[in-house]
């Protein structure tokens, strides 16, 4: 299975699971891929890190499932509130995030809420060291996407 980050014409981001890139293209051309928030069927793939789910069998696509929870304006308000909370309660350390997180983890620096950027490899290394981090999804991350 292939997991793709998708976005509708109205700017809602979501995940879709497909047997292959070709399966996504076929379903998109047939108008079978729709946004779980607004049902818009003009969908584009967003850049994402590769991820393959090998648990499914048979090569068929897994349908896109809408996340449970509020929709429409309520969701937008909640995302705006979360973004405001992240901005007000964390310090932006930018690309120094792995270094600062390690110093805090090992007691070399005072613990506090921080945010910044890491590469995929740095994120894996931090996790291997037992350093907890959270990746904020697009639309919430106040400083753009994690690279």
Please state the structural category.
alpha+beta
Give me the number of helical elements.
Answer: 4
End-to-end separation: 23 Å
What's the shape? elongated
Major beta sheet summary: 3 strands, antiparallel
**What is the typical, i.e. mean, pLDDT?**
77
Question: How would you describe the overall organization of this protein?
Answer:
The chain is of the alpha+beta class and 147 residues long. The chain has two domains: 1-67; 73-128, no CATH class. It is 30% helix and 16% strand. It contains four helices and five strands; from the N terminus they run E-E-H-E-H-E-H-E-H. It has a three-stranded antiparallel sheet. A two-stranded parallel ribbon has the order 4-5. Strand 4, helix 3 (97-105) and strand 5 form a beta-alpha-beta unit. The longest helix has 17 residues, at 73-89. It is elongated and about 55 Å long. The model has no long low-confidence stretch (mean pLDDT 77).
Structure, briefly:
With 147 residues, the protein is an alpha+beta fold.
Question: What is the topology?
Answer:
Elements: E1 2-8, E2 13-18, H1 21-29, E3 43-46, H2 73-89, E4 91-94, H3 97-105, E5 114-116, H4 120-128
Parallel strand pairs: 4-5
Antiparallel strand pairs: 1-2, 1-3
